[in-house]
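Board work, copied verbatim: TetR/AcrR family transcriptional regulator
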Amino acid sequence: MNTERRRQLSSAEERRETVLRTAIGAFAARGYFGTTTTEVAKAAGISQSYVYRLFPNKEALFTAVVEHCFSRVRASLEEGAAQSRGSAPEAVLYAMGDTYARLIADKDLLLVLTHAQAAAVSEAAVREAVRTGYARMVEYVRGASGAAENEIQRFFATGMLCHLLVSLDVQDVDAPWSRTLSAGVRHY
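↓ predict structure ↓
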């Protein structure tokens, strides 16, 4: 019985991960407001009622997706810090910025984070998930880099600029405004 119970729990956890991965694509395509749990269930190959067994409502599903995306961002920052070619704050920030720029080349992740910021304006639970995600990232970047507050702020500001550059495919635009915005900013 104990082994059977563990197998069921494992299966439910695996199903939860499958739903999260599937939901990333669904929410990336249509955002929080435009995506239904029915669409997520269909894409995951499960019933809508099973989605509700895993997540009590769409808000809980979306916030879990947002948390999952922030975990991926954190992992990329950790990878960058580990790959840094030096321990100076500038070197660590540069390495973390590079791995992050590579990560957001995954348009689904970028779209979910962008949709989350938009939904945070009116949805308290989403706002809290985004706040928590950024709070954890800022604290990680502070600890891993040892950078000053203004350097950390610039790091995140540049990250937001990267979101814009990737969203607009600025590398395909040869115009003064695009050169101004993208000068010195890495994006893939």
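The mean pLDDT is 92.
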